[in-house]
């Protein structure tokens, strides 16, 4: 009824249609198009790309840019060799990879992570919990409620706070500060006082 087929050796194409499904092949461009309901696929050798779509999911591949895009509901992924990046998104979570900058971004609700080789930093946040790492300064910041920690190799300091208690360490001055309630202690190599 709705099905037909067309063959032409000059153009080397074939078209098939049955209901909502159809297929197109052409040797000149080496492409194939398939559609069944909401799903379709496109292949082309010139650009080496493939497009797949089923409902909300689709995929795109292209050798020129070496990219692939996948989307299913709210989730998608993007890959590109030129920039070597991948983007994934599912609900509120996403991830980004880029070899040029060597960064990764992850986001799920309130949690996220960022990595960058140039700065070598990673940021994690979930609720009130976060962490930051950077090789240039080599620091790490962690916060969970009132608990946090800071590390830096240049000054080699660490700050910890939980409730009213905190501690500070720094190798340059070799001091440590501890406070819990009304009690505190200070240590310094040069003066060594409490």
TrEMBL record:
User: What domain of life?
Assistant: Eukaryota
Protein name in UniProt: Uncharacterized protein
Organism lineage string? Eukaryota, Metazoa, Spiralia, Lophotrochozoa, Mollusca
